[in-house]
Amino acid sequence: MKTNTLKIALLGPFGFGNLGDAAIQQAMIYNARKVSNQLEIYGVSLNPDDTEKRHGIRCFPISRKPSERLDGSDQSIATPTHRKFLKARHLIFRLFLEIVIIIRSMKNISGFHHLIISGGGQLDDYFGGPLSHPYTLLKWTLCALLGGAKVHFVSVGAGPINSKLSFLLIKTALALATSRSFRDQDSKRFIAKLGFNRGDPVFPDLAHSIDAPFQTPSSEDGLVIGVGPMTYFKPGCWPEYDEKVYQTYMEKLTEFIQWLHGQNASIRLFPGEVGADRPAIDQLKSRFHKNDRDRFIIDNQIETVDELLAELASTTFVIASRFHGVLLSHVTRKPVIALSYHRKVSNLMKDMGHEEYCLDINTFSADELIEKFKKMQKNKDQLQHQIELKEMSYQAALTRQYKDLFTSQNNDMILTPFCRQGEKPVSSLKGELAWKRRNAERNTIGSSRSMP
Fold this sequence. Notes:
By secondary structure, the protein is an alpha/beta fold. The chain folds into 2 domains: 191 residues, Glycogen Phosphorylase B (Rossmann fold); 160 residues, 3-Layer(aba) Sandwich (Rossmann fold). The protein is 48% helix and 14% strand. It is built from 15 helices and 14 strands. α1 packs across α11 and α3 packs across α4. The chain starts with 5 loop residues before the first strand and ends with a helix.
C-alpha cells in the first residue's frame, strides 16, 4: 500500500543557542504542518540533542558528533620529526573520519524525499572558511541526491563569502538544487555578482511567519525598553576580534541605559544567541550598582524562542544589534532602533521603511542613540502601523511560498519548485524535461482561461 507521507530533513548550522536560527526552523516546522499533516520532519544540525529537545523532531548530526571532535595532541614538547608525524597522523585520521561521516550521512538521508536548507548563515564562509559550512552544504546536497532526495534552498541569506573555493562549493550546491529562493534582494544580487544567477525568487526570512504573541504593556508598567547586546568583536566570541571595539560598544550602551534610568524606564536585557551573548549581558549589568540594577534592570534567563518572543512582546521599544533580534521585535510589532553590524541588518530596516532608525554599530554615539529614541517615542503609533502592514505582507508572501513548497496532487505529496514561470529550477536532463512539461501545461491552462 502506497503511503502519502513525505520524509523531509531540515538542515542548518543550528543547535547551539542561536535563537534566530531556532526561530527559522520553528517557523518552518509550524507552517509546514499547517499546510500538510502528511509530513514526517527531521533535523540535520550541529547539535542533534538540542534540536530534538527544542523542536521535538528527530535529528541527525550535520558533521562530527561532539564525541568525535578531534583531540589535538600537545605538540609543544615534541621534536620536529615527531611533530611532522603527529600532523600526518592527524590528517589521515581526519580523512578517515570524514569518510565515515559521509557514509553515515548517506545512510541517514536514505529514504528521505526532500532536504530543505533554509535561513541565514547558509551561504557564507565567515565562520570556519570554505571547509566548514560551504563544504558541508555540498556534501549533504550530494548525499541527498544520491539517496534519491530533492534539495531546496528556502529563503536563504548570502554573504560574506571570502574564498573562491567557498563560492565554488556553494555555487555547485545551488546548481544541483531543485529550487532556490533568497530572503532579500541583496543576497540574490550578491550571489549573482559572484556568477550564479538563475532568476530565483525572493521571499522574506522565514522567521516573519513564526506564531508570535502580541501584547501592549499596561500603563502601570511604564516605559519598558528591550535591549539586546551582543559580544561584537569580543575576543573568543567573534571570528574577528578587537577588545577596544567591544568595550567601546558596551560603554555606549551603558551610557544610553543610564539615560533611560533617568527617564524612569525599566530595561529588559535579552540574548540573540543564548550562550554567546551572556557575557555581554552580564557585563552590562555589572556596570551598575547592584541596588540600582535590581530596581530597573530585568534579566530573565531566556533559553527558547517562545521565551524571547514573550520578552519582546512585553516591551514598549527595542534596541537590538543581532539580525533576528530586530526581526523578531518587528514580528511582535515593536518599534526598533537597530545597531547594525552587517548590511543584512541595514537592509532589513530599509525594507521596513525605518532606515532612519538604523545606526552603524561602529560609529554611533550615545547622544545620537538618545535622539533617535526620542524621535521613535514621538512617532510610535505611526511606526507600529507601518510594522503591522509590512509584517502582514511578509506573512502573506511566506504563506504563498509554503503552499507552493508543500503541495498535494492526486493524493501524492510532492514538493514543487517555487520558481517564477519561465525559470528553470533544475539543470539535470530529467528535471529539464519535467520543467518543460510543467510550463507547457501552464501555458495551455493560461490559454484556455483567456478564452471568452
